[in-house]
Specification:
705 residues; 0% strand; 28 helices; mainly alpha; elongated
């Protein structure tokens, strides 16, 4: 070890024996460590740190506190260890008997464990053998399970095959001897499945079991087909009985057995064809007879509206003697006016007429009422039959074969009526009825009447056009001499035209067809020409104008009832009324105040102060002023009476008189203004009638007219 130079401290002299706490820092703080230059192996680096770490160690602190040296302490420790070793040897010697006994016990345990090892090895060998057996058993079990599964599948298929192919005695009894009821229908379904089974599967056809069963199945099929055919035919014959409610029989009886038709269709096609044909023939005849009887009953209720001579431009007195016998059946006001006939469009979905009830009440109806009635019956019958054919037979095409007869009956009737129909209003109503019926069938989603309704619609339009052209030609070719009457009130031809036009406008408001509008424009031009010709027959211009005004006013009033908003035709007549009213006002004023009007129109606009060749003098206007002052009230009274007697409409007359008096006031105002500009015109002021007086008279007549 390196030499360490330290200051000697006497531990025994400086330390008190009873001092329990030793200050290690104070003890080592005075040590001076010098490096031993001759030592290469020992380094004291870190010694200070280790001393600090041992500072709190109890053993080290105790050693240092006692002042013992390290060598002495080491010897003490070695002595202690030697003593412990000797004590331990003594313990072993003392416990030697126990150790021998323990050794014997360990040997006995080792022997026992050896036997246990041998026994467990045997168990292990036996367990391995058992595991091998279990594997064999598991494989056998899986094999048996697979075989069982295959046998179950084979059993189920075989059971199904046997079930599908065998013919139970109960089935034979029901098919052969049973009544046609719900049980029969269920048995029929089972038979159908068996027949399909032996026909569809090729493996079944090759089986030997089929050879035994097939003859029996065929006999059952034939018996079932024969029995169901007889049953259905019997039910179809019930449809032919008089007063039979066909729809109730179809819904409550036939539809209940509709599976019979499916069975015949699949397993008895020839018999199905016979049943189908029998039903078509039966319903064709029954429905044809019903519609024929219904139409004949309706014809007795028909009210004739118009004949070929009931035209707008035909003179009333030209009606032949042979037509007078029909007059009681004719509603003359309905020939041109729509009137209450339009209600038929609001009653479009009402039930069809019952002829014997209507006949008992002696009611008569225009043809469009009968037309709607039998078409309503046709739609309801067709809807019911269409649904039944689809449900019972599964065929929509069968409907058209059934209704070939009813369509022929209706066509025969309609083709006999249409060529003799001269009622243009009725024809237009029938066109609108057909349109409403088409919408009804569309809402029902029933297409079976589409072609028929289109055909009827197509046949109605040409007939309407022909009758309309007859009216048009009657106006164009009218004899003015025979039509003219010495009467300025509305002409009956013009009233016919107005009512006829208003009726067609009203029937076209909600539909907006362009063709009627074009036809009405042609008709308007024709009646304009005829009215002008009739007016020119009057000898005086005033009477011509009055005649035109009365007819225009009447026409406008009738047209307003059809279309309050006014249309192109109404606006045309309003313009004509306005222009002719202005002409009449001039004619009326010229009749009573011609001198004043002539002066106002020719001289009143001149400037009296200008250096013209002949200026207006007081003497020129004085007679006019005095003449007006002396008779203006009487002239107005005469104008009032003239208007009252000339015009049929009080409202129109009031407007015309007001316009005339207003125009008179304008003329007189211009005359008064002219007099004020004349030199010396103030001398006439005493003879001038005040404007307020004239206004008072105008208001008085406006109130009392």
């Amino acid at each position: 070890m390196a030499a360490v130079a330290t200051n000697k401290v006497s531990y025994g002299e400086t330390n008190d024996d009873q001092k329990n706490i030793f200050d290690l820092g104070a003890f080592v703080g005075d040590l001076t460590i010098e490096e031993d230059v001759s030592s290469d192996d020992i380094s004291l680096e870190g010694l200070q740190q280790e001393l600090e770490e041992c500072k709190n160690d109890d053993v080290v602190a105790n050693i240092l506190s006692k002042g013992a040296k390290l060598r002495e302490y080491t010897k003490g420790v070695e002595n202690n260890l030697r003593q412990v070793e000797l004590d331990s040897i003594q313990d072993y010697i003392h416990e030697s008997d126990n150790l021998v006994s323990l050794h014997d016990q360990i040997r006995e345990c080792d022997s026992i464990l050896s036997q246990m090892e041998t026994l467990l090895s045997g168990f292990q060998a036996e367990i391995g053998s058992i595991s091998s057996d279990i594997k064999i058993l598991q494989e056998n079990s899986m094999d048996m399970g697979l075989k069982l599964k295959n046998r179950k599948v084979a059993e189920s298929k075989l059971a199904k095959f046997v079930e599908d192919i065998i013919v139970p005695p109960r089935m034979v009894d029901i098919i052969v001897d049973g009544e046609v009821n719900d049980e029969f229908l269920r048995t029929l379904e089972i038979l159908s499945k068996k027949l399909k089974f032996v026909e569809v599967d090729p493996m079944v056809k090759a089986s030997k079991a089929l050879k035994d069963v097939q003859p029996e199945l065929e006999k059952l099929r034939q018996k079932a087909v024969s029995k169901t055919f007889d049953f259905v035919v019997q039910k179809l014959y019930a449809l032919r009985k008089p007063k039979t409610n066909i729809q109730i029989l179809q819904q409550s009886v036939l539809l209940k057995y509709k599976y019979i038709i499916s069975f015949l269709k699949e397993h008895g096609s020839e018999v199905y064809t016979e049943v189908r044909g029998a039903y078509i023939d039966t319903m064709n005849k029954v429905l044809s007879a019903h519609f024929r009887a219904y139409i004949l009953a309706l014809e007795k209720l028909q009210l004739d509206i118009a004949t070929y001579s009931d035209l707008i431009g035909v003179e009333t007195r030209s009606t032949g003697l042979f037509l007078r016998g029909r007059e009681p059946l004719k509603n003359r006001s309905a020939v041109y006016a729509l009137g209450e006939r339009i209600k038929i469009l609001k009653e479009i979905d009402e039930p069809a007429l019952i002829p014997h009830i209507a006949e008992a009440s002696s009611s008569k109806y225009p043809y469009e009422v009968l037309f709607r009635s039998f078409h309503k019956l046709l739609m309801d019958t067709a809807t019911s039959e269409y649904h039944f054919c689809d449900d019972f037979f599964g065929e929509e095409s069968i409907f058209y074969e059934i209704f070939a007869g009813p369509f022929a009956v209706i066509d025969e009737h309609f083709n006999s009526i249409l060529p003799n129909c001269y009622d243009a209003i009725g024809l237009m109503l029938m066109i609108r009825i057909i349109h409403q019926h088409q919408l009804t069938m569309s809402r029902r989603r029933i297409p079976c009447l589409d072609l028929y309704l289109d055909k009827v619609n197509i046949s109605l339009w040409p007939r309407f056009k022909m009758v309309f052209d007859m009216h048009l030609n009657s106006l164009r070719n009218a004899n003015v001499k025979t039509l003219w009457e010495d009467d300025v009130h509305p002409h009956y031809v013009m009233r016919r035209y107005a009512e006829f036009t208003a009726s067609l406008i009203r029937l076209n408001v909600e539909y907006g067809d362009g063709q009627p509008d074009l036809n009405l424009e042609r008709l308007r031009m024709a009646v304009d020409d005829l009215l002008i010709k009739l007016a020119k027959v009057f000898p005086k211009t005033k009477l011509q104008i009055v005649f035109l005004i009365n007819n225009y006013d009447m026409t406008i009033s009738v047209l307003k009832e059809a279309s309050p908003d006014g249309g192109k035709i109404q606006m045309h007549f309003e313009e004509l009324l306005k222009s002719n009213t202005a002409l009449f006002v001039e004619e009326l004023l010229l009749e009573h105040f011609s001198d004043i009007i002539k002066f106002v129109k020719t001289r009143a606009s001149e400037d009296p102060t200008s250096s013209s060749e002949k200026p207006i003098a007081v003497g020129e206007v004085e007679p006019l002023v005095k003449d007006f002052a002396s008779r203006w009230k009487g002239a107005i009274e005469l104008m009032h009476k003239d208007v009252i007697t000339s015009f049929s409409s009080l409202l129109c007359g009031m407007e015309i008189l007001r316009a005339a008096l207003t125009q008179l006031l304008l003329y007189y105002t211009r005359l008064s203004d002219c007099i004020k500009r004349i030199v010396g015109g103030s001398a006439l002021n005493k003879d001038l009638v005040s404007i307020s007086s004239i206004m008072y008279e105008i208001k008085k007549y406006s109130r009392t007219f």
